[in-house]
Amino acid sequence: MTAPDNIQPSDTSEWGRVKNATKSVTDYDAHAAQAHSVAVAPLGTPDNPNSAIFTLANFVTLCRFGLTVAFLYLFVNHADRSLALTLYAVAAVTDFLDGWIARTTQSVSWLGKIMDPIMDRFLLFTGVLGLVARGDVPTWIAWFVLGRDAVLLVGSIALQHFRRRPVDVAFIGKVTTALLMVGFCFCLLDQPQIDGLGLVSASWLPVLNQQGGALGLLFVYAGIICSTYTAILYYLQGIHIAIQSKRAAR
């Protein structure tokens, strides 16, 4: 089913416009289908989220935030490393748990769809910041991860002028996230340690140069390469959409 392209919000208040804009960015098709009363999927499924707030899935998502903050505090302050990593691991598991609960109990909500990607990025950023604060990874990696998401956010906002529906998530984007998460987890464990490969002389590429480090850095480097490719791919798709939109408007 293809939802209509024009959404007329039923709530015209300022808060109503904010809610509608947020839903549109989060899942345009589901929002448009609900706005035009043409949603055919059962309420509480990914294609037809409900407006519930106090659900088990949302509670699990909120717990991920608390666990992540607790991890960062313990990790940066050189507290019990094993406890900090346990909290981070549990937080990472909830990334899959909340979605599974929401789908199996048919309690997918708009709040959950909005919070989940935000908490995912927060979990990733927190891991990076913790590693940088401890000196386990080069600072430029944190700037790259933050900058890449900022660039994509700017691009998605610009694309709204030409098409409300965001660019579809590419498979390589999922591979990127998986590589970064695995790499950061290995770096957080600080095991296994490997000798420098001596492939480059750049001081800012530990493990690839003569300096040893955590094996996870190799996964992080692979994730950065895939991340760069993904960003270029998304921007090319956005440019194509903009060109097609301008042609159609003539």
Can you tell me about this structure?
- The protein has 250 residues and is mainly alpha-helical.
- It has 3 domains: 1-40, no CATH class; 53-134, no CATH class; 136-250, no CATH class.
- It has 8 helices and 2 strands.
- The chain has a two-stranded antiparallel sheet with strand order 1-2.
- The two termini are 27 Å apart.
- The model has no long low-confidence stretch (mean pLDDT 86).
Quick description:
By secondary structure, the protein is mainly α. The protein contains eight helices and two strands. The two termini are 27 Å apart.
Shape: globular
Q: How much is the average pLDDT?
A: 86
Annotation, overall tally of beta strands = 2
Q: Low-confidence stretches at least 5 residues in length (pLDDT < 50)?
A: none
- Distance from N terminus to C terminus (CA atoms, Å) equals 27 Å
Query: Looking across the biggest beta sheet, what order are the strands in?
Result: 1-2
The proportion of strand residues reads: under 5%
Count helical runs: 8
Give the tally of structural domains. 3
**Radius of gyration from the alpha-carbon trace, in angstroms:** 21 Å
SS class: mainly alpha
Helix content: 55-70%
Quick one: biggest sheet? 2 strands, antiparallel
Topology summary:
Blueprint lengths: L13 H13 L1 H8 L20 H21 L4 H24 L5 H25 L4 H21 L11 H19 L3 E2 L18 E2 L1 H34 L1
Antiparallel strand pairs: 1-2
Helix pairs in contact: 1-2, 3-4, 3-5, 4-5, 5-6, 5-7, 6-8, 7-8
